[in-house]
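Anyone? Bumping this.
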Amino acid sequence: MKEQITEYCQKLNLSVIADQWSALADQAAKDNVPYSSFLFSLLEAEVVEKQVRSTTTLLKLSRLPFRKTIDEFNFSIQPTIDERRIRELMTLSFLKEHENPIFLGPPGIGKTHLAVSIGLQAISQGYKTYFVSAHDLIIQLRKADSDGKLEKKLRSFVKPRLLIIDEMGYMKLDIGDAHYLFQVIARRYEKGSIILTSNKSFGEWGEMVGDPVIATAILDRLLHHSRIFNLNGESYRLKEKRNKDKLEK
Ligand code: ADP
Ligand code: MG
């Protein structure tokens, strides 16, 4: 019977229970553990392992450029960021409402850090997340289009529950690029959240996208259900460098 139990567990994809049931059963018999507690500890071991495995997979698939959490973010040096609003994002209620958090501001003030930490939170709750720079998004779509695989590529940006588009604004888009971007944003509209970071204000999108009509069409969808964070202040990188230089003097 022992072998068969293990075999059935494997058939049912219960690899942890297959490994552990025998030792746990012996222990439970020795300790006079109630049947329900024994069953509970078996199932719990399996569930915990499955969660860890799926988080690891989601992390790999997400392409997050680094792993920094919100606890590593120092709010006290960044007065333009309302900690309460950021903590609210961490509840992920925006994901359920298909809202788009948007972080605007100059370089080095933590926009990517905040986006990444929300991404990590989403992954920890089992949501498929994908991080891409605006530059890579466009390059990938251009290539897919020339290979005749645009539709498939577009779907890969539409499917994740959370899409993070980082650093919009550094790359000037041509009209074809603008249409790619429109496709991604329009297809995700009211279906899946986008976190976007940018150094450009919305007023500059016409110029960035190269066409005011398509810029308006994109912004219309992006901003309809959005939470906008206007950040400002000195670059954290520069601040850190200055402190280091001071210490070295
Ligand atoms: P941005 O995307 O706005 O250019 P980043 O998020 O890349 O800025 O931040 C630059 C670096 O400074 C990162 O290593 C980030 O972790 C760090 N950083 C920025 N702001 C803070 C902060 N308030 N607390 C802790 N680290 C920060
Ligand atoms: Mg950044």
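Late reply, but here is one note on the structure posted above: The CA atoms of residues 138 and 177 lie 6 Å apart.
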